[in-house]
């Protein structure tokens, strides 16, 4: 019994270590603040750890964890009943190695993009982050958000349209966030 628990704990630890930067990035984009992102990831991982036997054996554990994170964020947002705030800065965010094929990663002014994302309504922000920053398919984003594919398409289109009118971001989002 103890060996199985140790094996599960080791598997969970390996998952967390390998996915921490990506989880933090997603949480930061959803919350707009470094400390709120850290809290969101910790809350998510606490919930996931309790159910790790089920989560670890899922077809896509990362998608499962992402869904838990989005649900936790939505609950927190509903409870506080306040809009997202623009992040003060992203200097404390753990950086991933830049992907040269990522147009957002090549953006000259990431701060402007993050501030613009913070101005989107929650569902539009989730759809834009999942579709264009996390590069999920419409069906994967719909599963993560707990809604239909049509809702993802609608929210992403509205969010991109709002980002297009932000000065300096028009070229970046002219093609839906992709070149």
Architecture overview:
Residues 21-80 form the RNA polymerase sigma-70 region domain. Residues 111-163 form the RNA polymerase sigma factor 70 region 4 type domain. Keywords: DNA-binding, Sigma factor, Transcription, Transcription regulation. GO terms for molecular function: DNA binding; sigma factor activity. Helix content is 65%, strand content 0%. The protein is mainly alpha-helical and 179 residues long. The protein folds into two domains: 1-82, Rna Polymerase Sigma Factor, Chain: A (Orthogonal Bundle); 100-179, Orthogonal Bundle (Arc Repressor Mutant, subunit A). α1 runs antiparallel to α2 (34-50). Residues 81-88 and 174-179 have low confidence and may be disordered.
Task: Give short descriptive properties of this protein.
single chain; mainly alpha; Rna Polymerase Sigma Factor, Chain: A; Arc Repressor Mutant, subunit A; 2 domains; 65% helix
